[in-house]
Amino acid sequence: MLLIFTALPFAFGQNKDVDALKQMNKDWIGSFVTRDTAMMARIYADDMILVSPSGRVFHKKDLLRNLLSPEMEFVSAKVDTVSVRLLGSVGLVSAQATAVGKVDGKATTVRTCYLDVYEKRKGRWYAVASQVAVLGE
Fold it and tell me: Most buried among 24, 75, 83, 103, by the most CB within 10 A?
């Protein structure tokens, strides 16, 4: 019985971290539509890297600059599925999302799957790495 009561604070702490990472993931995806670079700057660690579907590597400053690019306008973006795995101070977010955007005035829908790596630094979660793949039809 003592073991159960001892484990409760740990389990509650894990649930809190899982919920925080799910919310950060939702905020990140939503930021594409609102072009909220301030939100993304809070989510990304200064040493953040993202590997695009084409294999190109982007850093935090590139990601923030690209969000404001006039070439792509996001009309909507939503998380379709998400799972979170905690490994100590590392959180893995595996998800799928659907985005609708306009490229050169033409609407297009893109489905992606991605793995985001978060690290808890001084009590706060930051996205440190991401790998994105585009899903087929």
Answer: 24
CA–CA gap between residue 122 and residue 25 (Å, rounded) = 20
Q: What is the pTM assigned to this prediction?
A: 0.86
C-alpha R_g of the chain:
17
CATH of the domain at 127: 3.10.450.50
- Residue whose entry in the numeric block shows the structure tokens 């809070």: 42
Residue that wins the pLDDT comparison between 73 and 38: 38
What is the residue range of 99's domain?
A: 2-134
> Do 32 and 67 meet the contact criterion of CB atoms below 8 Å apart?
yes
Q: In what order do the strands lie in the sheet with 72-87?
A: 57-59, 44-51, 124-134, 106-121, 90-103, 72-87
Give the total number of structural domains in the chain.
Answer: 1
Residue in 85, 137, 74 with CA at minimum distance from that of residue 107: 74
